[in-house]
Hints:
The complex is a heterodimer. In chain A, strand 1 (about 175-180) and strand 2 form a beta hairpin. In chain A, helix 9 (about 210-230) crosses helix 10 and helix 10 (about 230-240) crosses helix 12 (about 255-275). Chain A contains 16 helices and 2 strands. In chain A, about 55% of the residues are buried. In chain A, strands 1-2 form a two-stranded antiparallel ribbon. Chain A has a domain at about 75-325: Orthogonal Bundle (ABC transporter involved in vitamin B12 uptake, BtuC), CATH 1.10.3470. Chain A has helices spanning about 1-15, 15-40, 45-55, 65-90, 100-120, 120-145, 150-170, 200-205, 210-230, 230-240, 245-250, 255-275, 295-305, 310-325, 335-350, 350-379; strands at about 175-180, 185. Chain A is globular and about 75 Å long. By secondary structure, chain A is mostly helical. Chain B is mainly alpha-helical. Chain B has helices at about 1-30, 40-55, 60-90, 95-115, 135-140, 155-170, 175-185, 185-190, 195-220, 235-245, 250-265, 270-275, 280-300; strands at about 130, 140, 150, 225. Chain B has a two-stranded antiparallel sheet. A two-stranded antiparallel sheet of chain B has the order 2-3. In chain B, helix 2 packs across helix 9 (about 195-220) and helix 3 (about 60-90) packs antiparallel against helix 9 (about 195-220). The longest helix of chain B is centred in the first third of the chain and has 29 residues, at about 1-30.
Amino acid sequence: MNKVKSFFFSLLKKESTKTIVASLWCALLGLVLGFIILLCINPKEASYGMTSVLGNYLIFSSPQDRLNYFGQTLAKTAPLIAMSLSILVAYKAGLFNLGGSGQYSIAVLVISFLGLNANWPWWIVMIIAMIAAAMWSMISGLLKAFFNVNEVISGIMLNWIALYIVNGVLTSNSTVWDSSHSESFTISNTSNAFIPSIGLDKLFAGNSIVGLGMILILVTVVVIFVLFKKTTIGYELKVTGLNADAANYAGINKVKNILIATAISGALAGLAASLNLQNGFTSWKLSSVPPDIGFQGISAAFLGGLHPIGVIFSSYFIVHITEGGSMITDLGFSPEVASIMTSVIIYLSGFVLFIKKFVSKHDLKNELNKLSRGKENKK
Amino acid sequence: MIIALSIVSFLIAYVAILSITALGGMFSEKSGTVALSLEGSMTFGAFIGGVMMYVLPTSIPNGLAALIVILASVIGAGLYSLLLALACITFKANQTLIGTALNILSTAFAVVLIKQMTRTEALPVGNSRLNFTRFYSIFNVDLFGIAGVKFNWLVLIVLALIPIVYFVIYKTRYGLRLSSCGENPRSADSLGINVAKTRYVGVLLSGIFAGLGGLLLISMNAEWEFANGASGFGFLALAVLIFGQWKPLYIFLGAFVFSIFKTLSVVYPSIDFLAKLGISSYFYLALPYIVCLVVLVFTSKKNIGPKSLGEPYDKGKR
């Protein structure tokens, strides 16, 4: 029994456990606040609403429906993982990528033309979309490296510029623009640009939006993990992020690292667009604000403790409650309740450092109590 | 003539929106806290003001109603900005992260509550658009009595505030203390200035000013789609702040430059030679942001912002 206890304590002392505990607290507090808002809006239906948000696909009674919507949730998680990796890579290198939405938009533009018009093979479309997004992101990098422009501001400006470029170009081309629905055409599952299902759809009641993308994103997670754990490039990026002056002193080329970091993070944002569009699930909708996936990526990255494995779970969680949120419109709740919850969770994840300290203090107290109790026993 | 006057009226209103919001951001950044949540504070101020304009009964006289709306926006946005202060000053959280969270939160919050308010039997979910025709005619008067040229008198309040801000920042003890907390909080602390308190006031002022900016923005229209937040004006104001090198007069000039391009995106169809060029409307929409990037390239080389901007102040640290 004591062994189990001491194992538990040593686990609690670990940095990673503290991060997980802190993130879980954030998620829990965010959900509680969301529930309170539901209670204020409609006390009678609030608990059912909350069940739908938390249950998502589980509220369906038929197993076919459950599997189908589970597949949909997974397929929507993949792009968010890519986007949060994009935020993560930049953050590790000391940059805050607020331009994820813009990079995503530029990739959407490329995918729409190459996927719908040219009907190129899916992997070529995906690679070109990633390159285009990486180049867009490198504008921020170049401005930062050579003109000292704050990447947060340039990222925000590039989001809006990209939004208007994509809106302008797509709406003026009737081959890609479905003007009756004011959105671009979706990529059909017979098209070359469609990411193949490789039989995974059969596991999810024939939901063809689940496919090779799921495997690709897991591979990407591993690649990013290895990048920071094992490679020189990753190490240099990390050092630059921790202390840019020290990195410079150690002979690490700052300009090169900024460009590499922005290129990788842009490519990952492009991958997010590819995984979102090339399974035929969604398309570009005419909007007057940049797509919110860039900001959701920030939530997922921080909630996931800025760890490549962690973002898998945090992304799933965020998509899960967002999808659940879209099911509560019948009860008279607006789906944005889910986005209140996620933003509260990001807000709280800013407190992670503080919560971690609190957790440490707490188990320190426990240890002290144990010690004093031990002394009393000896007496 | 009417067209030209309308354009000028638009331009002045945009100058007022951008400069008041950027000046608010200046208080926050000069004291050392990044004002990334200006967009969120604007949205929240607009939301509170918009709700007031929607619910206030017509029995309340116009002047009093306008006063209530202004106070509600300003106080609401001020309180909202305290969330930023709490996280970033007291709990030393990452300021970019918290700013982003608050930007998303205010839009989501506004949309959820407004959808709740506009629910009817026929429309069970409601919509995120509010209509306030009565207040449109209260806030907007005919300029010089010319019919068709609307002028929002909130602009006058803003223009009056600019010299006051200049005076406060440069000529009062409070202004100097505020700047010292953003430049070198340690020496400010050693001189007996309460850094945390000063920064709280800076952030609070940024919220109040941004709230007024948000109200001005939506009261120029007879209705507002809250799903769009403050349509990016908060972000432009942040760029104006940096372009203006954290100085009130330059901020005003910067706001003027950006407003010219912003106005262009609205009025270009009514200017003959621009309409004839046949350039996509999206180009004009993107123009202020492109100009902003170009200007930043030329002004960012010298790092002249507050030296401790974005760094939480830790008393115990050496």
